[in-house]
Structures are given as C-alpha cells and as structure tokens.
Amino acid sequence: MKRNIELVLAYDGSGFKGWQVQPDVRTVQGVLNRKLEKLLAEPIKTMGASRTDSGVHAHDQHVTFKIENAIPLVKLARALNHHLPEDVKLVHALEREEGYCARRSARAKHYVYIIKQGEQKNPFLGRYVWSIERDLDFSAMVAAARCFSGINDFKSLQCVRDFRSRSVVQIFTSRLEENHGHLCFHVVGRSFLYNMVRNMVGALIKVGVGDWNVAQFKMNLFSGDRSQMGVTAPAHGLHLLRVFYDRESYPLDEGKAILNRHFELLD
Amino acid sequence: MKRNIELVLAYDGSGFKGWQVQPDVRTVQGVLNRKLEKLLAEPIKTMGASRTDSGVHAHDQHVTFKIENAIPLVKLARALNHHLPEDVKLVHALEREEGYCARRSARAKHYVYIIKQGEQKNPFLGRYVWSIERDLDFSAMVAAARCFSGINDFKSLQCVRDFRSRSVVQIFTSRLEENHGHLCFHVVGRSFLYNMVRNMVGALIKVGVGDWNVAQFKMNLFSGDRSQMGVTAPAHGLHLLRVFYDRESYPLDEGKAILNRHFELLD
Predict the structure, then answer these.
(1) Ordered domains of chain B (ranges, CATH)
(2) In this complex, do A114 and B265 lie within 8 Å of one another by their Cβ atoms?
(3) Quick check: helix, strand or coil at residue B142?
(4) pLDDT in tens, A50-98
(5) What ipTM did this prediction achieve?
(6) Which residues of B are catalytic?
(7) Enclosing H/E stretch for B71
C-alpha cells in the first residue's frame, strides 16, 4: 500500500499563475510536482485543498499525494524545503491514514481579504492588500458583511464562467474588522464558488462608497443576478489563511494568529 | 530662487538594480526622476541620502531636489504617490530651506541586517532576510558585533572595488539582537564604506559558525586586510531603516518602530 503524505505550504502568490498545474506557466502545483518527482523519482499526483487563483496568497494550503518511496518524512521535508523557491515554503509535513484527502476531507476554509483605505505608503505590503483611495463607510460595510452568513443561494456572486448548476453555499462566519488601519474581511465557509470571496468584496465596496445602502445590498445579494453585484476585487488582496479538518467550530482567531506570524517580523 | 523639496521614500529593493540612476536598468532614482520630470515638466536632479545597492530595501530614504514649479506640495505628493509603482512609495514630502541636502546634511544612518537561522518557512519574508541553515553561536556573535563601535580604520571591511583612500569611519552603535526568531544586526554610523554592513555581517557569520573566536575576529577586523574578513552577505537581508539629521543621539528604537510598522499587518 502506498504512503499517504500531507504537506502544509505557504506561498506568496505574486509570482505564480495560481495553484493549478498548467502547461508553460509557473504555478505552485507545477513547481511542487516537479520538485517532488525529482526527489522521489516516481510520478506524483498532488491534490490541494484550495485551487487558489493567480496572485492569491496562501498561509495554510494543504496538499496530499501518495508515494512508494520509503524516504523518512523528516528527510523529505528538509530536502523539499531546501529545493523550493523563496516564494513557496513548506510549513510542515505529516503521514496520513489511507483515504485522507486535502481537498475532500476539508470541512471549512478561512479566507481573509485585506483592504487598505487611503494611499498605500508601505511598499512591502502592496503585493498583499488592495488599496482604495476613496472614502469608505466602514460601519455600513460591517453591517453588509454580516449578510453573507448562513446557507444561501449565492447565484448573484457566481462568476459567469462558472458553470456549476448549484450555487447554494454554507458560510459559517463573515465579518469585516479594522486592524492597524486595514479593513480585513474574514470569511469562513464549507466551500466557495469560483471567485466568490473577491465578488463578495466587490459588492461590499459598493456599500462602502455609498452606491448602495445595506437594504439595497441585501436585495441585490439575493436577486440571483450576477450583473447586480458589482465588480470582482483584485486577486492580490486575497489570502487563504486556514483550512479546517477536524472540528465543527471554526474560530477566526487561529487564522488571525497565522496571519500575524507571517507579517510580523519584529515587536 | 528655486524651491528645495525633500521626499522620504520607502522601497522594496527586490525589483531594482539599486538606488543610483543607470542607463537601461530599473533603479529607484531612475523611476523617481522620470515620474518627477513628467509631473513637473522641468529637468530634475535628485540626491539620495544613501546609495542603496541592488536588492537592498529602504524604509526611510531621504531625497532632495530643486524645482521652479509652483505646484502645492500636497498636490505634488499625492500625484507622485499615485504614479509611483507598488514597490516604491512616498512616505512624506517637505519644503526645506536653501542649502539643506539629503546626503550632505545627514548626520547618521541606521541600517539593520536581518538573518533567519534555520529553514525559512515564511515565503512572505524570504525577500527581506538572509536564511542560514547552519547552527550559529548567538552569544559569540553578540560579543563580536560590539567590536565595530567607535572611530576605527575599517580597511579590512573595505571592498576591493572601493578606491577611496580613507577607510576611517565612525560607528555610533553596533548591536546584534534576537527578535521573533530573527537575528537583527543594528548598526548606526556617520557614514559607511561601500558594502560595509554586508561585509560586517559576513565576518559575524564566521564567528557564528565557529571558524573564529571573538579574539580572532577582533584581530582580523583590525588587520587592515580585506582577505581576512570573510564573505559579503547577500543584499536582500539589508535595510536602510532611518536617516538622522537633527540630533546628536541616535536611538535604535526609532528605527525599530519603523521596521515594525512596515512588517506588522495585524496584531
């Protein structure tokens, strides 16, 4: 029986055309597969918990794959991290039971979308946040953000290129918070439609700039009509913060702690 | 009489071939000059406090230049920040008295060099720190780092390509500290030789890995012989943190606070 390996990866999405392997472009899965196949000398088929888009960052991407090779896990982890490029790093590696799959076993995902209101004066954060120079009505956005919670038909947030028939999705938590001058939209859901979080943020901005009040926002959200819901926010403000496997409660705090560790270099 | 303008810039050095304008390569000064000349429609000659190398970051680079244009400063600042690319940003702009010059008026500069000991698992910091997988003797490095303080002939740290005859330099503070799992070498000096901080770090590493004890380090440091002093540390771990103009004391804390604000996104 093959061994079932799980890796937890963090990556800066700026230099990748997303997670999913594609011919002739640099993707995280493409880079990972190549390194693994070289190290293990066997064909490898990786499965990621989330197919992050081009430019989207991940702090806690989970990946599973099966191997024949008897290499000790610690050795594999060290060699892999040594060979991975600077913008994708192995956080840890685990040996899993048969049947465990990074994508299918996941119970919830926590994304955060980071907005900087006003001029972006920090060149070290420009890759990770969306800067908006217009005034935003923060309290109206907070109220609108709450409307995403629950089990709802989010057809109005479904990308026109997404042909899945089912657009009902369960959102456990949806909350906009201010931290250190950044607006952070935290959302935890069982699953997400294609581009859904970025579409949520585009709609929240319509409330923020005063185009809609919260009642109009709610009406448009449940209209089932994509054309009513504003633009798609850019990819570089979006972060996959945490994937949950084992629990029925999905605290925001764990994701926030991860984000902290990644951005905070000194006290 | 022309107006004398000072800008304070922050930049991520990863995508630049250093500060100084050069034909056919992307430099910070080159980008800045082009944007200023376009906005102000007159030739602009900028002077930077520090000629940071290719790959070196700056959190507090000061730049002065003279203009004829009567544009209000606030308007110039807003337009410039809007047009600058994501990896270089204007922190603030000031109108200065005649004779003030970002380079000649500077009294001290604070650099920090950041070392990550062990595997780098954070892809968001790889561009800003030097990762060393070997074990380092921290307390020996702390002791060695102190030896740089004072007015000394640092010929042993002078790059062979640096043809200045004078290698006597005044270092006000030189201190290695551990913060959040990173070794931070803070150094404040009146001026620095070409590549000097990176050469200091290369020498400290020789102590860290046990090639030299502190007595040998000191002997090599004052030998006047560059070939005795180890390698030059890579550029991407080096940050210009603070330039001092007005005082006779140069507290490390102000620089540390700047670094904090830049790296810390959430609590």
Answers:
(1) 3-96 (3.30.70.580), 108-260 (3.30.70.660)
(2) yes
(3) helix
(4) 999 999 999 999 999 999 999 999 999 999 999 999 899 999 999 999 9
(5) 0.80
(6) 53
(7) none
